Amino acid sequence: MTEQLIPLVQVDDLHKEFRQGNIATLALQGISLQIQRGDFVAITGPSGCGKSTLLNVLGLLDSFDSGSYQLSGIDTSTLTVDQRSKIRNKHIGFVFQSFNLIDSMTVFDNVALPLLHRGCGKAEVAEKVEHALSAVDMAHRSAFYPNQLSGGQQQRIAIARALVGSPDLLLVDEPTGNLDSKNGDAVMQMLQKLHQQGTTIVMVTHDHRYSRCASRQIQLLDGQIIASGQKLEVA
Ligand SMILES: Nc1ncnc2c1ncn2[C@@H]1O[C@H](COP(=O)(O)OP(=O)(O)OP(=O)(O)O)[C@@H](O)[C@H]1O
């Protein structure tokens, strides 16, 4: 994934339907978008408009029914389950609203997890974890457990875990949803810093104060993009 001329993400006319018994929900209805390396894109829109579905498709956590999704020039529809999970582990980092840290493991071990799945050696793991924790100003909490940290600190650890493998794409779903405004602001500042350092970020957020921190906003309604641009006026 080093091709600089190919967009990191190229999505064309993507459709996705969920079926629950007789009820069909058209979660994505013809989404087309491009994301370049170094972009910071915020996806906004009302509850149920398809934001998380789109993020899950971009993260290869979920499939789609029609259209195409090329990740760094690779047609994702041709990938096997094994290839998808390898690409996910190596090239995509995830940050969720609920942190998803493992309480019985130290901060260090939580952040190290993606590297262990890759079979990295001990010295490499130690160096990369330290680097990721320093990037989110949490190196001094390496031996702590998640429940000894504030919500904002836990989210920064989750960001370090997402970054530790140097992913090409960082996908962030409502990163401030469980945080008070002070901790939310600190997490957003962290994401902005990572963006300035070159990380490509796609972030779903309800909060328009934070979507304005991104370099581009995409507004969804009923599974469709209704507006896209650098500075959207929000109703
Ligand atoms: N696994 C599923 N089974 C059935 N329907 C689903 C499933 N996941 C999502 N949906 C439906 O698809 C639509 C889009 O859901 P999605 O979670 O993407 O919305 P969202 O914009 O992220 O919402 P929110 O802001 O509330 O998190 C919704 O109508 C939802 O009910």
UniProtKB/TrEMBL annotation:
Keywords on record: ATP-binding, Nucleotide-binding, Transport
A Gene Ontology term for the protein's cellular component: plasma membrane
Domain ABC transporter: 9-235
Top-level taxon in the UniProt lineage: Bacteria
GO terms for MF: ATP binding; ATP hydrolysis activity; transmembrane transporter activity
Coiled coil spans: none
Cited PROSITE patterns: ABC_TRANSPORTER_1, ABC_TRANSPORTER_2
Entries under Gene3D superfamilies matching the protein: P-loop containing nucleotide triphosphate hydrolases (3.40.50.300)
InterPro entries: AAA+_ATPase, ABC_transporter-like_ATP-bd, ABC_transporter-like_CS, ABC_transpr_LolD-like, MacB-like_ATP-bd, P-loop_NTPase
PANTHER family: ABC TRANSPORTER ATP-BINDING PROTEIN YTRE, IMPORT ATP-BINDING PROTEIN
Family: Belongs to the ABC transporter superfamily. Macrolide exporter (TC 3.A.1.122) family.
Name assigned to this protein: ABC transporter ATP-binding protein
